[in-house]
Design a protein that fits this description.
By secondary structure, this protein is mainly β. It has one helix at about 50-55; strands at about 1-10, 15-20, 20-30, 40-45, 60-75, 75-90. Strands 1, 2, 3, 4, 5 and 6 form a six-stranded antiparallel beta sheet that branches. It is globular. The two termini are about 25 Å apart. About 15% of the residues are buried.
Length: about 120
């Protein structure tokens, strides 16, 4: 899948040592679909050498290619959004309506009902 948006948070670098040696991980928060009443955000991560390779900074507009994976730890399940492609975009004004691009049309949501403009509820 892919998403285009603006990096709004770069978290501190995390490092550690596992059975395969030293590792490092960094997480980023991307804001997309900024024209909607409630802009969407997602946190994705990079591991190892990709952190230095892409050198992501707050305020950058990016096109992110990513995979979503889930794993179990001590009876709880955790999602992991791992970027495998990071491309800077030239200008954020072109990306205001950007959102997810599903891998196939089978992943598209069903047709939504019209929004009741008289309601105070956000959904």
């Amino acid at each position: 899948m892919e998403v285009k948006g603006k990096v709004i948070v770069v978290t501190p670098l995390q490092t550690g040592e596992g059975r395969n040696g030293m590792w490092k991980k960094q997480e980023y928060v991307l804001e997309y679909d900024q024209n909607s009443q409630y802009p969407r955000r997602m946190m994705f991560n990079l591991w190892g050498d990709k952190i230095d390779q892409y050198n992501i900074q707050e305020g950058q507009w990016l096109n992110i290619g990513f995979d979503i994976d889930c794993r179990e730890y001590n009876g709880k399940w955790y999602n992991d959004i791992r970027a495998w492609k990071v491309e800077p975009t030239e200008d954020g004004t072109q990306e205001l309506n950007a959102g997810f691009t599903p891998a196939s049309s089978t992943m598209l949501p069903p047709t939504a009902q019209p929004i009741d403009e008289t309601s105070d509820l956000p959904f």
